[in-house]
Specification:
CATH superfamily of the largest domain: Bira Bifunctional Protein, Domain 2
Radius of gyration: 21 Å
Number of strands: 8
CATH class of the largest domain: Alpha Beta
Order of helices and strands: HHEHHEEEEEHHHEE
Shape: globular
Largest sheet: 4 strands, mixed
CATH architecture of the largest domain: 2-Layer Sandwich
Number of helices: 7
């Protein structure tokens, strides 16, 4: 999707991009198709080779993200890349662990010129997967975490994320159907889907 956007801007809107470039000068944006995808461990290796000292389960600081962007540009000639498989220790408790290495997660960040533009992850949708990881996470078990796990214990379908559940809860018009009744979905009476 992003490469289609970048290609469209380059090919169909070159005049507009040049007009903006006269006001805000910048180097031409480069990208690969398909986009470059690097695992977190490899990104960490690049940073260490550049003299940065970081632990294996440490999150990237903003200066290190910018440096990684410059290193990736120099090595691969791309301004856009995806950093995948972050350490589980730096992601929220509801992030799905990597099935091949549970120290890492099914999560990613997307970068443009060393700036994080998007972050995402596969969410745990089964409390049997999440519960064993709770003691490993450095957080206090708050009402929010409790509510998140309760959704899966009693009612929530595998697709429903916390944001839509929170939005619907705020709208106060949702009826939750316990999964023990065999219905793995939400039923809303008189839902107003307008925002």
């Amino acid at each position: 999707m992003f490469t289609d956007i970048f290609r469209g801007l380059r090919d169909r809107y070159a005049a507009q991009v040049q007009a903006v470039g006269r006001q805000y000068p910048a180097d031409e944006f480069t990208f690969l198709d398909p986009p470059l995808r690097l695992e977190y461990r490899y990104g960490l290796k690049l940073l260490r080779e550049a003299g940065i000292e970081m632990g294996d389960e440490e999150d990237l600081s903003t200066p290190n993200e910018k440096l990684l962007g410059r290193l990736v540009k120099a090595k691969y000639d791309t301004d856009f890349f995806i950093l995948d498989k972050y350490p589980l220790a730096v992601r929220p408790f509801y992030t799905m662990p990597d099935p091949d290495d549970p120290k890492y997660s099914n999560s990613y960040d997307m970068f443009m010129r060393g700036e994080e533009i998007l972050s995402g992850a596969q969410r745990i949708h089964d409390p049997k997967v999440s519960l064993p990881f709770l003691p490993l996470k450095p957080f206090y078990f708050t009402l929010l975490e409790s509510a998140f796990l309760s959704m899966f214990l009693c009612c929530s379908c595998w697709l429903s994320g916390l944001s839509i559940m929170a939005w619907m809860w705020r709208r106060s018009r949702v009826t939750l159907i316990p999964s023990s009744m065999g219905a793995h979905h939400m039923a809303g009476e008189g839902l107003d889907w307008s925002v």
